[in-house]
From TrEMBL, chains A, B:
Gene (UniProt): serC
Lineage: Bacteria, Pseudomonadati, Bacteroidota, Sphingobacteriia, Sphingobacteriales
Protein EC: 2.6.1.52
UniProt binding sites for pyridoxal 5'-phosphate: 74-75, 100, 148, 167, 190, 232-233
NCBIfam families referenced in this protein's UniProt entry, alphabetically: PRK05355.1 (NF003764), serC_1 (TIGR01364)
Family in the record: Belongs to the class-V pyridoxal-phosphate-dependent aminotransferase family. SerC subfamily.
Protein's recorded name: Phosphoserine aminotransferase
Cofactor note: Binds 1 pyridoxal phosphate per subunit.
C-alpha cells in the first residue's frame, strides 16, 4: 500500500484507474480499445459530452460560459490568455505569487504590456499579497489560486472590476468557487481532475473577440468553442479519465463534500506540524494551502532519515520542491484521510525516536 | 473479433494495449499507476528517454536533429512550423494535396507570405502534383506525405533546395525515409505511433533561431528542445503507449520489415478493388496510399448493404470521408494482413450475392 503525496501528476481514485485500465482493452463492450476508436464515434462523443456536463454541474458553471478540454497544459494557457484577451496596445495585470505566476506574466509580455500589481517574491512567496489595487484600465487581472511549490492558496478571491483570469491547476474542484466572478479559468488536469495531457478551460464567451490580433486556429478560444473541443483530434484517453474522475467526485457528493474533507485533511496535518517539535510550517497561517502542505525541519540534518522512514512506510512524493526545501505533502481530492494519518503516524514515530 | 480499419485514432497492437492497461493499475511494479507518478520520476524519465532513442534508431535520425514529444496534434504544428521558421517578411512554399495541407498553409498566412507551388484541388485531390518548381527564396517547402482523406501518398519525396517540412501524421514509421532530406517532420501519434494526445516532432537544429519574431515558450521549438520535451508536464500516458508501440515495431524487425508488410497489404487490397466488378479505386495509380485505401462502388445504391455486411463480419471503420464518399480502409502498421483478407472475403461474398 502506497500513500501518494506527489505534487502532480498526482493521485487518482482507485476505481477510476480500474475502469480506465479496462477501457484500454475493451471500451464499453465495443470490442475495441478506447485508444483506437475514432474521436468522432458516438461512443467517444458521449464521453466528451458527459465530461463537459459534469464540469458544468459540479462547478456550477453559469450560462454564457464555454467549457473546453484542450492540450498543452497550463503553460500553453499562459500564452493563450493574452493571445486572446490582451490587445497589443493594452496592458494586463498580474498578481505574482510564485514561479508559475511569474511564467504566466512573462508569456503575456509577448502580447502587450504587463503590470505586476503585487508580489511576494521578496519572501520567496510564503504569503499572498492582499494590499493592492486592480487597475480598471487593464484588459484582465491574472491570479494563481494555489501555489503548488510554496503551499499558499488564495482563501478569498479578489473582487475585480475587470475580467478575472485564474490558473486553478492545483486546486480546481477542491472547493466551491463562484464561476460567475471569473472571465477565464484554466487548469492542467494532472492534480485533481485526471491524468497529464488535458487542460480544462472555462471561459466567459462575451470577453472573447475583443482583440484585433489574428489568432491561429489552435490558439483561438473561439475556434475551439465552435469545434466543441474537437477542432482537431482531442486527447481522448485523458478526457475519458477526467470524465471518470468527475463522475467519482459527483458520486462522493460533489465539490461541497470534498471541500469539507480537504479542510479536515489539511487541518489535521497542519496541527501535527505545529505540535510536533521536529517540524515547522513554511507559509503565513492565513494563506496556507489545503492542497499542498509545505513544512521544514528545525534540524535539517534529520531530513534524510525522515524521508527514509517515510519511504519504508510507503509514503511517497513528500520531498519538497528544491526552491523551498523540506517537505511538501500534496493532499489532493483523491488522497484519503487515512493516508494523512499514515503520514502523521510516521512524523510522531520519528519524533519519538529523535527526542 | 473486430477488424479495425478506422482512419484514426487507429488500431494499436494487442500486446501494446495489454501492457498499457496494466500500467494504468501498477506501473513497472512501483505500486502506483503510470497516471499518478511524477513526470520527473526516474521511472517516467526512462520511458521518455527510451521513446526518443527508439525514434532515432527506427527512423535513422542523424546527428544534428532533435526529437520532441509535444501536445496539440499536427494542427498545432501547422502554426508552429511558420511561427519558428517563417520570417514575417519572408515566404513559405506549400504543396496543396488535400484539406490538411490546406489547413497547414492557412496557418502559415498568419506569419508571412505563402506560395502554393501546386495543387490538385481541381480534381478533389485524387493525385499528387509533380510538375512544379520549389522557389529557392522561400523559407521552407511544406508537404503532406500521406493524405488520409483521399488515399494519396507521395511515393517519392521531392529534392528541395530549401528546408523540407513534412506532415507525416498518417504514414510515419510505415516506410523507410531519409530523415537527412528533411528540415522538420511532424506527426500526430494516433495513426501509426500511439494514441491521440501526443505529437512527434523531428527537427534539424540548424534551421532554428533564424526568425527574429519573439515566440512564447510553449510554441518555441528551441525551448522545447532545451527542456527535453519536459518544459512543462508532458502527456505521460500517450508517450508511454507510443514508446510501447515503437518497441513492438522494433521487435517486428523495424521500419524495413513493416514497409514490406504494408506494401503487401496494400497490393492485395488494391488488386481486389481492381478485380471486383462492384468496386473501383479513387486515386491515380502511381499515387495510391499504402495506408488509406479509398474506393467507391460502381452502383452507389449498394453502399449501405455492403456496409451492413461489413458490420456483421466485424469490419469497422471503412466508411469513406464525406468529402470523398464510398469507402476507406485504413491499413496502418498494426493492422494484420488477416484483417485485409477478412475485408477481401466480404467484398467477394458481396459481389457473389449481387451478380
Amino acid at each position: 500500500m502506497k500513500h501518494n503525496f506527489g505534487a502532480g501528476p498526482g493521485i487518482l481514485p482507485h476505481e477510476v484507474l480500474k475502469q480506465a485500465s479496462e477501457a484500454v482493452i475493451d471500451f464499453n463492450g465495443t470490442g475495441l480499445s478506447l485508444l483506437e476508436i475514432s474521436h468522432r464515434s458516438k461512443e467517444f462523443e458521449a464521453v466528451l459530452d458527459e465530461a463537459v456536463l459534469l464540469v458544468k454541474e459540479l462547478f456550477g458553471v453559469p450560462e454564457g460560459y464555454s467549457v473546453l478540454f484542450l492540450q498543452g497544459g497550463a503553460s500553453t494557457q499562459f500564452a493563450l490568455a493574452p493571445y486572446n484577451l490582451l490587445p497589443s496596445t493594452g496592458k494586463a495585470a498580474y498578481l505574482e505569487t510564485g514561479v508559475w505566476a511569474n511564467k504566466a506574466l512573462k508569456e503575456a509580455k509577448f502580447f502587450g504590456e504587463v503590470e505586476i500589481v503585487a508580489s511576494s517574491k521578496e519572501s520567496n512567496f510564503t504569503y499572498i499579497p492582499k494590499d493592492y489595487t486592480i487597475p480598471a484600465d487593464a484588459a484582465y487581472f491574472h491570479i494563481t489560486s494555489n501555489n503548488t511549490i510554496y503551499g499558499t492558496q488564495l482563501q478569498e478571491f479578489p473582487k475585480s472590476p475587470i475580467p478575472l483570469v485564474c490558473d486553478m491547476s492545483s486546486d480546481i474542484f477542491s472547493r466551491k468557487v463562484n464561476v460567475a466572478d471569473f472571465g477565464l479559468i484554466y487548469a492542467g488536469a494532472q492534480k485533481n481532475m485526471g491524468p497529464a495531457g488535458v487542460t480544462l478551460v472555462i471561459v466567459k464567451d462575451e470577453i472573447l473577440g475583443k482583440v484585433d490580433r489574428k489568432i491561429p486556429a489552435m490558439f483561438n478560444y473561439q475556434v475551439q468553442i465552435e469545434g466543441g473541443s474537437m477542432y482537431n483530434t482531442p486527447p481522448c484517453f485523458a478526457i475519458y479519465v477526467s470524465m471518470l474522475t468527475l463522475r467519482w467526485l459527483k458520486a462522493k457528493g460533489g465539490v461541497e463534500v470534498i471541500e469539507q474533507e480537504n479542510i479536515t485533511k489539511a487541518r489535521v496535518l497542519y496541527d501535527e506540524i505545529e505540535r510536533n517539535p521536529l517540524f515547522k510550517p513554511v507559509c503565513a497561517t492565513e494563506d496556507r494551502s489545503h492542497m499542498n502542505v509545505t513544512f521544514v525541519m528545525e534540524n535539517a540534518e534529520l531530513e534524510k532519515p525522515f524521508l527514509k522512514l517515510c519511504d519504508e512506510r510507503g509514503i511517497v512524493g513528500i520531498k519538497g520542491h528544491r526552491s523551498v526545501g523540506g517537505f511538501r505533502a500534496s493532499i489532493y481530492n483523491a488522497l484519503p484521510i487515512t493516508s494523512v494519518y499514515a503520514l502523521i503516524d510516521v512524523m510522531q514515530e520519528f519524533a519519538e525516536s529523535n527526542k
